[in-house]
């Protein structure tokens, strides 16, 4: 057996797993499960001590010192929000949210799926301290939701996946605005002005036609992110703002690209071969020209989004889950699960998302403003509304921002985990039934 065959045997299953939509959700679930088991094992002290390890970045007299947990929530999650910003811009520029007639239904569903859960949460929590977490049940974890939906394969209409994706992106935008306006600590005005200055430089670079992602990385991380980290505005907002400045246009159109590539391919064919494993200098120059032509036909936004998807799905989010899902379950788990805060989060996510999304969709469809996505039924919409109750990543993140009391944080997180499991199971079985009904009718 050759080395190539061995590599294919080892690498192909890994590549197939990574390309599968459900893989990210599976790894995220396993990370959360490991965190839960670790935090409730004989080694639970090591779990908590690990995330409290102090780490610092210093340059001369300038130093930023935070715990590992803070670096994950303020640093790695900024990368997560950066990719959310890229997805949002792509959808607005040329995706499902670019056409008003296509965008209105998922946006309305997203708004309904945020307002109703927040209202339910507030109604169930009367104490000011607990009520501060009203933003927790507003979020949807797109990786988990799409991962569960992908388990049904081709039995789910493509239009329904598109609807859920657009809904979740609108939902993410809402969550970002909630974090920016309601979960921001005391503002350091000088740092905020500095951050705005770096944002201006990023926008200027875009307007000047600069397409080197390294420039945006230096200004975004070295300037905007650090300034926001010091300003009191949560650093993850810098990730979204930086993403919105990334160029979303090509340097050449499709016709120019095709013509240039055909000419270069013809030149490569006509180039004199050297009959050796190495290519000639002329062939090397032609290949370099091909690379430049390909780069000119790509948008930096889509290139970054595609390149960073694996990083976020398979590294950033699992690490976040490992660091934040470790809730210690006491001896009386039943009592823990029925605290007002835990119930408010769980009911807000499960029932609030279901009522908010279906009511918003029903209102627009009944009034004739919008139509259901092609090849979908109301059973599909109800199933998606249930899947939207999987708050997980975003909800856990907002819980960390909403409370300082560890007991309240753990109660909120327990509600998130309970709701995500229940909403995922209910949503899956409803969509499975909808798929069965569609097959029977056809």
Short description:
This protein is mostly helical. It has helices at residues 3-19, 21-39, 44-51, 68-94, 100-124, 128-131, 142-150, 158-182, 189-207, 213-231, 236-244, 254-270, 281-297, 300-324, 333-337, 340-366, 378-387, 392-402, 406-441; strands at 54-59, 62-67.
Residues in β-strands, percent: under 5%
Let me know the largest β-sheet.
2 strands, antiparallel
CATH superfamily of one domain: Na+/H+ antiporter like domain
Helix content: over 70%
- Number of strand elements: 2
Q: Uncertain regions: pLDDT < 50 for 5+ in a row?
A: none
How far the N terminus sits from the C terminus, by CA atoms, comes to 48 Å
Radius of gyration: 24 Å
Order of helix and strand elements from N to C terminus? HHHEEHHHHHHHHHHHHHHHH
CATH topology of one domain: Na+/H+ antiporter like fold
Neighbour order of strands in the largest sheet: 1-2
**Cα shape:** globular
The number of helical runs is 19
From the 3D coordinates, which CATH architecture of one domain would you assign? Up-down Bundle
Nearest-integer average pLDDT: 84
CATH class of one domain: Mainly Alpha
Assign the structural class, choosing from mainly alpha, mainly beta, alpha/beta, alpha+beta, or little secondary structure: mainly alpha
